[in-house]
TrEMBL record:
Keyword Lyase assigned: yes
This protein's name: Cystathionine beta-lyase
SUPFAM superfamilies: PLP-dependent transferases
Organism of origin: Bosea caraganae
Gene of this entry: metC
Family to which the UniProt record says this protein belongs: Belongs to the trans-sulfuration enzymes family.
Amino acid sequence: MHDLTRCVHHPAVDTEGYASLAVATHRASTIVYPDAESFSQRKHRGFDGYTYGLHGTPTTRTLEAQLSELHGGVRTVLVPSGQAAVTVVMLSFLLPGDKVLIPDHVYPPVRSFCEEYLKPRGIDYGVYDPLIGAGIAELIDERTRLVWIESPGSGTMEVQDVPAIAGAAKAKGALVGCDNTWATPLLFKPLAHGADFACEALTKYVGGHSDLLLGSITVADIALRQTMKETLRGLGVGVSPDECALALRGIETMGIRVAHMGRVSEDFARRLARSPAIDHVLHPALPSCPGHEFWARDIKRSSGVFSIVLKPGAEANLDAALTALKIFAIGASWGGTRSLIAPMAVKADRTVKPWTHEGTVLRISIGLEDPDDLWADLDALLFALESKPTAKVA
Ligand SMILES: *Cc1c(COP(=O)(O)O)cnc(C)c1O
């Protein structure tokens, strides 16, 4: 063997005795086969086999298996983002003439996808009141192939009656998908409550450090996995093992991160509810939150994201007050170690149940900073909002 060949042929080393606690990052496009026969038979390697890097490596399989176990499903599909987790389900199971139902509080890019991508291709969508419960049966016609759930809802936190909605959908032969990003599989398992697809933006709590984008779809029925496999192959969509390695690291600490963030978010929500600058606190753990009873029945604990509705008139000072924050960062895509705050435009995104609150909605994501520092920051924000605008209005 000459040196040029030595450069490209890595020597095989002994791995006997090498047992690490870390999951190795396996990168690959090409997968090689021991003989021509196995190459020609590669398409029979099944869901868990290896044929091409795009379709999985041992690193991605590890994360898939871990999420399947946490969700009580049989297989998990990994996709490049949480948004892709929603759209891949829709692209896989909706055909021209079909219809999907989405809740009014849905993650806004999902509504845009229905309007701008599905509709021009002959796939209709309907929007429903997130608190409709079993009443959704009336909206499910023979064209309705999929009912989408997001609980609690993006930004406004309405908790949905997942078993009632899923039960009504099932009775009419529709599939049910649930965006479970707020709860994570630690706080809620959609498959155990009647959903066919449990979707997560792993970008948030699983990643946990604001440095990766990934999504997952877990199913309990292997036939659904087969259909999505065909979609992903057709689209050429796969995920990077490096992102998966980060997610595998993040998931190890997700339990204590989410538990801590949930405790702090509940405590802050109760304290904020007493502030005169605040009109409403939208947190599933508060009895005033729409759907609180379903949170208490099905979810029971909290993660770290909730929203507050400011008193009308507080906007006058809001930009300056947000910019003056010392610990909270201003930004979207929550779930990391840093606490975030961001104003949200809600009104324009509601078509079924008009949003009647006049004040600005701020979404808060609790991170891992000392809660006293966070509270001092919020306190300063509230003080700034409370003092000047009322003087201005008067
Ligand atoms: C963030 C988020 C998404 C999208 O996740 P990305 O990875 O940012 O695409 C979808 N649904 C919910 C509820 C989210 O919070």
